[in-house]
What we know:
heterodimer; A: alpha/beta; Rossmann fold; six-stranded mixed β-sheet; four-stranded antiparallel β-sheet; B: mainly alpha; 2 strands
Amino acid sequence: MTSLLEVEGVTKRFRGVIAVDSVTFEVPQGAIFAVIGPNGAGKTTLFNTIAGMFAPDTGSIAFSGERIDGLAPNEICARGIARTFQIVRPFPALSVEDNVIVGALLHRRDVGAARQCAQALLRRLDLFDKRRQLAANLTLPDRKHLEVARALATEPRLLLLDEVMAGLRPTETDRMVATLREINRESGLTILLIEHVMRAVMALASRVLVLDHGTAIAEGTPEAIVRDPAVVQSYLGAETE
Amino acid sequence: MTDLWSSIPQRGRVTLLVLIALLLAAPMALDRYLISIFVLIFYYAYVGQAWNLLMGFAGQLSLGHALYAGLGGYVAALLWFYFGIGPWLGVFAAVAVAAMFGAAVGWLGFRFGIEGVYFALLTIAFAEFTRIAFDNMPFTGGAGGLFLLYDAQRSHEWWNLRGGPLLFYYIGLVLAAAAAVLTAWLARSRIGFQWLAVREDQQAALALGIDAFRVKMIAMLISSSMTAIGGVLLTFYYNNLFPTQAFDIGRSIEIILAPIIGGLGTIFGPIVGAFILTPLGEGLIALTGSLGIDAPGAKAVFYGLTLMVIITLRPDGVWPWLKRLLALTEVKS
């Protein structure tokens, strides 16, 4: 299997604090890959580095064979990497539909065509009936759905999901998991997700990377990860002798 | 274009057609003074629309739009004054110069991430230093101003913008209407959506692949170019130009009041705002005059108070409220 995303020795420091410390991993084409870890482990920083919000201090990031580290966020999106934000950022004064149209206009010039694409995605993410509401008036779960719909509208080859399940009820989580699996299966979309909700990680991911204090402490299948002593220690604390 | 028309509900279309017909016929019933008020209404509706495009849609606050109006006016006036080149040709040079300044302001602001009030300060600074430059340039008349001679023999040369209020009435009307149509068309196109996205949340817009620098520059170029055309019109209407007036921050504020009062980021906001503010200003002059209050600034105090009342009652502008009141809400496909 070829790798769509190759992260090689990426380090990101903030004024002396090492948020991400020489992290290396590869996301195979078509995979659903999860990054987990306790709060402050550097997951979102790693995401932001991949998405171009800042360049890594050292290391390289390649997307389908081409270096993308140091590119601006809009250039990275144009190359086929879409992302959602942990703290959702819909365009509040725009309707739900218009939010998604903005994404769909990346590869379309015609607003009418973008609207059709947006409506199809809104159906898929259970927002079609709410498409005329202002995004500001949506509930949190709906905003999470909108965030995903808008990212998908840019027709990415890699989707970065930053804690889209956080704040969802278990039934809503299952629904989201089902939708993501469906999209992954039908279109072969590669998904890289940060997630705290282990129920979703176990159901979705084919591979899991565990970050702790900025370093990768384990990588493997979900089943192997939950039995890994290093992971157990970082989540539950060291066993006292 | 047909899309635009069909997006307006039936009631709105009828109202719009009646209004246009009334405005076309109005000069027959109006005297010179009233016509001159309408010229100002159209002017403010037009330049307000230009500013609204940048602020209301692309979300960039300019407090120095007098710069583009002033430059437009000066360039066209100088070409006429020195070389006898008429404003219909001069307007192209006027637009080019104003767009260059707009590009400079935009490039500095957008490239270096100067945002919000800091961007506004940058726009003020450009207008101010241009004012000082024009104050000291002899060939523009310096602080003493530039005067376009009123030659009675040429007063029929409408193609050189020589004429009375009636000529400017119709040009102003056409400009204001054209600006509204252009804005409406842009707002529904790809760039319009991208402007709104940048206005609402630039980080999120970038994450959706929007080149925020590029779309903001486009807004800046269109807005400064449009404003320059307004400046040409006003200059040939008044036949004089002074740096202290043309580039003054007070002039910049006048430009932005109509869209704010009427409704930011709406197509009809600047028009509604201009129809409220200009008559209000004129009415207050008449009122304070007839009441015998000739204290300096009396008009400004009343004007300011009225604006405060309107903003307090209709913080989103008058047009969104008026639209609901008249049930002219847009139908969406």
